[in-house]
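User: Can you fold this complex?
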Amino acid sequence: MKKMALSALTLLFAVSCGPSLHVDAEFLEYFHRFEHRGGYRIKNIHAGFEQLEGTTIGECRYEEPPVIAIDPDYWNKASDEKRESLIFHELGHCFLGLDHNDKVFGDGCAKSIMNSFEISDECYWLHREEYMVDLFGF
Ligand SMILES: [Zn+2]
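Assistant: Here's the predicted assembly.
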């Protein structure tokens, strides 16, 4: 009897704390690009729109599951490059557990997608492959 109660409790825990993926449809393409380039399967993240304070355009909250919040005003005006770099940046925090890296190249462009500040489209075109290698390690 004691054993049964324990297994019921374990099951409840597994159901309430199992992986959960809720991603706004707008972000799916960028999640897929991230999975494809990195060879990952993302199973446990929530990502949606939220009005963010000040100049913040996106953030990762280390909750269970981790939560990515994207500012809708920024997103609606952002180019494909900016959307990709923002989602990859937040997944860098929330999925890969990375911190910021604010080093810059000689041309003034960020050396990493994990830079604290938004990356211009020009820098993204010039350095995208270096950003991918920096992020994924290959
Ligand atoms: Zn960040």
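The longest strand covers residues 46-49. Residues 111 and 130 are 8 Å apart (CA to CA).
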